Hints:
Layout: H1 21-38, E1 42-43, E2 52-53, H2 55-65, H3 68-84, H4 101-122, H5 126-152, H6 156-163, H7 168-193
Antiparallel strand pairs: 1-2
Helix pairs in contact: 1-2, 1-3, 2-3, 2-4, 2-5, 2-7, 3-4, 4-5, 5-6, 5-7
Amino acid sequence: MSTVAVPTRRSVLADVVPRSLVADVLLVVGAAAFVGLMAQISFYIHPFVVPFTGQTLAVLLVGSTLGVRRALASMTLYVAAGLAGLPWFAGHSSGYSSLLFGYLLGFVLSVTLMSWLAARGNDRNVVSALGLFVIGELAIYALGVPWLAFDLHISLAQAITVGMTPYLIFDLVKAVFAGVALPSAWRLVERTSGH
Length: 195
């Protein structure tokens, strides 16, 4: 009687890396550092109080590639280390910013939700991946914008005007880029692994 080897289904892209504690730690720390690096692509446009950054693209990629535990650990590390003084928030900043803290919490929600959806195959084709990234962006706003309204003592509608609307076109570009890149990465992995 011969046994047939069944190929292992990879839930998320990071599952390409053989699972070990060292690999998981490197992925978590590397992902947090990647978000910190992308946060340095940062600029303000007057009169908006929230910076335009590359970090949301990094958050989306982390959320869609690492799986729930590693993605959640990486965003927790990113937020905790930044609050503790590591200058890897936007513009080399660190510490608690009451104005932007809701967006940081939104990063944690975003990667958790995205990694859960990605593990169910929503990262495999462009249409579902684009939807995945739009959901990830909306999760960031779902916590960031109400927190901004509370912090600035303005209405939710005003917070949407200053903390979400100006950023939508940039976020759509990020979502489209990531929505094309992730399924392309999957095709490359499958082609090189023979699955």
